[in-house]
Design a protein that fits this description.
115 residues; alpha+beta; two-stranded antiparallel sheet; 4 strands; 41% helix; F-box-like_dom_sf; F-box_dom; F-box domain-containing protein
């Protein structure tokens, strides 16, 4: 345990946030953008579990859009949403919030919606 002294304040590098219950951490994470929440999964196995069990789904296709590779972006987007839903189902939690923004104009992309 590393300690640093700044005047009269003593700081200790202890990870206390990881010891909070999942429900409290989910509540804290619900105030963050979904991409930021996903990035926390690389911190440790504990945080990876939190991402997989995170009950808030807020996906917008435009955040994955690149006009040069339209079909690839749609497939990537649907793969991410599908993977998140599949991993979440293993935890048998209720979804707290679900938002999916997806526009699919050309008929050739309809198969991605059903996927």
């Amino acid at each position: 345990m590393a300690k640093k002294q700044w005047g009269w304040i003593q700081a200790t590098s202890v990870d206390r946030i990881s010891y909070l219950p999942d429900g409290i951490l989910h509540q804290i994470l619900s105030y963050l953008h979904i991409k930021v929440v996903a990035r926390t999964s690389v911190l440790s196995k504990r945080w990876q579990h939190l991402w997989y069990s995170f009950p808030v789904f807020d996906f917008a296709q435009y955040e994955f859009y690149d006009p040069r590779k339209r079909m690839d972006d749609l497939e990537t987007f649907t793969d991410i949403v599908d993977g998140k839903l599949k991993s979440f189902c293993k935890y048998e939690h209720a979804i707290q919030r679900f938002n999916l923004q997806f526009s699919c104009i050309e008929p050739e992309y309809y198969c991605l919606v059903d996927k």
